[in-house]
Amino acid sequence: MSTSQPVSDSMRLSYALWFTMVFLVAIWSVFALNEILELGWRKHGVHPRKLEGLRGILTYPFLHGDWGHLWNNTMSFFTLNGFLFYFYRSIALRIWVLLFFLSGLLLWGMAVDGNHIGASGLIYGLAAFLFVSGVIRENRLLLRVSLAVAFLYGGIVWWMLPIDDHVSWEGHLSGALVGGLLAVVFRKQGPKDPVYVFERDEAND
């Protein structure tokens, strides 16, 4: 017999969907406006180690090269961000904000050149956080989430290597490094393994 949960599943799901859809609506709106009005916003990505390129940290996750790029990132982001805000509700927003800024800053500092755009770095960060966090925590549910992420997205590790000149592998790598680091830093915060009534009773005997 388990203790009652402080947040219902429906509220948790609504919370996860709301934060996920806000970002997705934003990136689709930016892409549509840029395409329809021919605004040329793609040039405002991260330009490594250039002072003017720092502003790209704020904009590059919202910019995408084409419909295929946008669609692929949409599907991955929907799943991974939903996992973050559903299973790590109490710390999800802090993780997300830190991941957003730190992965962009690391990309700016470590990449060689180019104009880096797309939400892929954020997606790699989410995947790395969910996987590492589930492995190092003593929580069976989060371990299952970790295994699900590995099953669904394990193949993306190859895109952290320089195998395609048109893919920002540095963005992928920077996101994954920051996500893994945040999983370690926040390992004592957030969801705990559920405590069952009979476990408490046994402890009191």
How is this structure best described in words?
By secondary structure, this protein is mainly α. The chain has one domain (9-204): Rhomboid-like (Rhomboid-like fold, Up-down Bundle), CATH 1.20.1540. The protein has 8 helices and no strands. The protein is globular. The protein starts with 8 loop residues before the first helix and ends with a helix. The model is unreliable at 196-203 (pLDDT under 50).
What number is the mean pLDDT? 91
Could you say which overall geometry the principal axes of the C-alpha atoms support?
globular
What is the fold-level CATH name, i.e. the topology? Rhomboid-like fold
* Total DSSP E strands: 0
Per CATH, the architecture is Up-down Bundle
Beta-strand residue fraction: under 5%
The description of the largest β-sheet is: none
The CATH class designation is Mainly Alpha
Please trace the helix and strand order, writing H or E for each element: HHHHHHHH
Radius of gyration: 19 Å
Helical coverage, percent range: 55-70%
CATH homologous superfamily assignment: Rhomboid-like
Alpha-carbon distance between the termini? 18 Å
By secondary-structure content and strand pairing, the structural class works out as mainly alpha
User: How many domains make up the coordinates?
Assistant: 1
Low-confidence stretches: 196-203
List the total number of helices: 8
